[in-house]
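Q: Hi! First time asking for a complex rather than a single chain. Here are the components, and I think there are two in total. Is that enough to go on?
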Amino acid sequence: MELRYLFKKTKSVPGSDSPKNEDQGPQTPQGLFHKCTKCGETIFSEELKRNLFVCPQCGGYFRMYAGTRIDSILDDGSFEEWDSDIKEMNPLKTPGYEDKLERLREKTSLDEAVVTGKGLVNGYPACLGVMDCRFMMASMGSVVGEKITRMFERATEEKLPVIIFTASGGARMQEGIISLMQMAKTSASIKRHSDAGLLYITVLTDPTTGGVTASFAMLGDIILAEPGALIGFAGPRVIEQTIGQKLPEGFQRSEFLLEHGFVDDIVTRTDMKDYLTDILKFHADKSAFKPEKADKIKLPKRSGKLTPWDKVMISRGKDRPVAEDYIKELFPDFIEFHGDRYVKDDKAIMGGIATFAGKAVTVIAESKGHDTKENIDRNFGMPSPDGYRKALRLMKQAEKFGRPVICFVDTPGAYCGLEAEERGQGEAIARNLYEMSALKVPVLSIIISEAGSGGALAVAVSDEVWMLENAIYAILSPEGYASILWKDSKRASEAAAEMKLTAEDMKDKKIVEKIIAEPENLCKDNIETVVMQLREGISGFIGNNQGFDGEELAKKRYDRYRSY
Amino acid sequence: MIKKVLIANRGEIAVRIIRACREMGIETVAVCSEADRNALHAMLADHTICIGPAPSSESYLNINRIISATMTSGADAIHPGFGFLSEDARFARICERCNITFIGPTSAMIAASGNKAQAKKTMMDAGVPTIPGSAEAARTVEDGLRLADIATYPVMIKAALGGGGKGMRVARTKDVFQQAFLTAQQEAKNAFGDGSMYIEHYVEHPKHIEVQILADKFGNVVHLGERDCSIQRNHQKLVEETPCEALSAEKRKEICEAAVKAAKAVNYENAGTVEFLLEPSGNFYFMEMNTRIQVEHPITEWVTGIDLIKEQIKIASGEKLGFTQEDVEIKGHSIEVRINAEDAENKFRPCPGKINLAYLPGGQGVRIDSAVYSGLEIPPFYDSMLAKLSVWAPTREEAIKKAQSALGEVIITGIKTNIDYQYGIITSPEFVAGNTDIDFIEKFSRK
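A: Yes, that's all I need. Here is the structure of the assembled complex.
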């Protein structure tokens, strides 16, 4: 017989069997636990709240109440709410609509589906709009549209940036065509705000759909998203019914939008406030350029005489630093933005904002990888049209905010492929030459390794072009040259000499202004001397161009290219 | 009064709690993992609920399952034992919210003690001695010298961003401070890219002394004397005794009163332990407060005659302490030896497996707290402690003899244990002479 049956059990003390008072006994109070809709785990509500409503088990995002969101973004006590008393319309005279809104107001303590106002984000003033799905699925009726519009009008007047956390089922059916007009109204107010040179950031949260996506959600200068949020115009169910197909996993989620070029970055809730602070900081002060006095640079010893073909091989060397390495050194606070807002995020071009000696700058780089894996990801530094369109988008953004543009050029050439042609590779390159020629901000391009043809020129129509000592710049590869002219690509080394593609050749022809000296076998470990020359040079470049207005800069650039 | 207690633990402590409850007429609910269906606690309790698979995270550490088991069983209190969820403030908080009596301090106290920096500051403010040293970091030798004077020599210089022993140096006197500082700082710069250094008093060859506290919900706090737990391997205590013979009556009073002060500073309630480091000079410093019942509590029970588990239950039920400090009388000497399933010859690797035979001694002044029996399979998932042997005798000498005699009788076959290693410790001349400090095992192992 098992031990468990042999042990004598407890003799309870008298009176202990008396019926329990139900109120006093253990019980789980309402709301003590939440069940995660993603992983099904039971979560202690207090912990969920501390974790900003992200499931501690699976990392799934719960939808956030507007009040909680505001508390998580704005400095304590800094929020000033605006327009909480706008009366709704019932244009279609929908029966029961007013009653429904009244009940929701009571239940949620919200006056409508969006809360607007202004406050401080780590000390930086901004207007903030936050949508709350509990109120009619945060659909956009006249009050939502009006609150958003008034916020933009007031932000324009007070010269303030705007941040909106979107979440919406779309237009409010009960308000019919008036609801549709809110899309146009809000967009128009954003246009005015933008034309005044002011910053607008949207943060897309789960779910952002319909008329909100098709208006103010997608109009941010910078569009961020929370991980895993559903973002789209038509809802997935509607699409499935229409096309009669099952949608792939992850369709219309934040990550899908990032890949397809519509979102600048995906930011977690924990990082959100700091991330927004950085962006606001980069846009807060336009005249904070304070260059430090540079140390005397000890220039590296010139390497022995190299043939042009040697330089071709060096420029393609596998240990040669890539754009990312220079960005890390020169712009440690660089924030990368993604996507062309049309088709995809092309990783062969990297772009974003940073500060240089206190001055905000836009950095754009043709990006090769460090190894084969990274290179496959970055398509060996050969941009697609989407990459050039991303670069142009970021340049136009720089122009709006008066930021100098620094480009790193490093590409064997624009990507040659089916999709590239389908999406207009030629058009994309041409558009960049056209727009860059008249950008109203200083533009500097630095050829760090290979600058192949139109693919390089598409980010090198600039006020100044510099070249690293062993970089090359040519109309096509020496292999291509040899095979076109001599029908023999093996004569590439001969072609290299004939093509006059070295930095010195470029300097002779006044194609480049400056040659950056390189140490022998330039690699990540001895990048410092190159970085120091670039730092000093960029500092000089920004300083020298500060005095010119946009028109003058464009005129100078026109003259520069007019001379060839 | 509590009527039914769920014990959120396993092993000998679960058995210990079941026994205390049974004596008080309180029903017991054991929880067990799938690997523990035949464990003694699971068989001894009035009710047993299997709460999940063997890994602790899915059973003994799974708050949701333990709360569910409590609700289902109708228990009105949880005793967390030690280890597992005993010092998890979140668990205590959930119990509070669910109206389950947590037999221990409140969640807020657990959280406060868990924050070491905050706890140190609270103790400093309350006048409990802490290791001298400042929160300020030094970047230059001059700053360092100034801070070292405050901390008093010998001092430990350590990198603010440090870890892994890099950027750490001891300076015994002012003369060698500069060199030690610069060397440590250079190491810190190389390793962490930062030369900010903390200067703290270096506590050399201390004893680990802890004071047992009981506090009720009405602000009454008493101490039950100290325990000397200096014999440790990798922070794992092996042999404990009380009283500590190195303390004079005066010093004992001072250290015990400091512990009461510490408990009062955080409005402590239930059983707790305040840990100190005692220097040969007689100076002692607060280390931390343990907000749970300790493994070594039997030796305090031996010398005071107070059942600590029962007191915990009474305090949690809202009763006032039934005695005052004056009523507490420390009598005789007690020693505890922990018996673990580990291979002392092989880096103390845990040795789970089936126990063929367990013979555990008894006799006057001998107590065994254990959950093993012949034929039990020790699962590999949990702590390797099998049993605690504790003895009492009027004097330390007699207690040592009794411990040697009793440990010599313990027989556990089928798995490897540390019995012989422990026997070596309690028969060593150093231990018998009372020459123990926290470096004892290091020296003992070298022999």
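A: Chain B touches chain A at residues 3, 21-22, 24-28, 40, 42-44, 46, 48, 63-64, 67, 70-71, 74-76, 90, 93-94, 97-100, 373 (CB under 8 Å). Let me know if you'd like any chain examined more closely.
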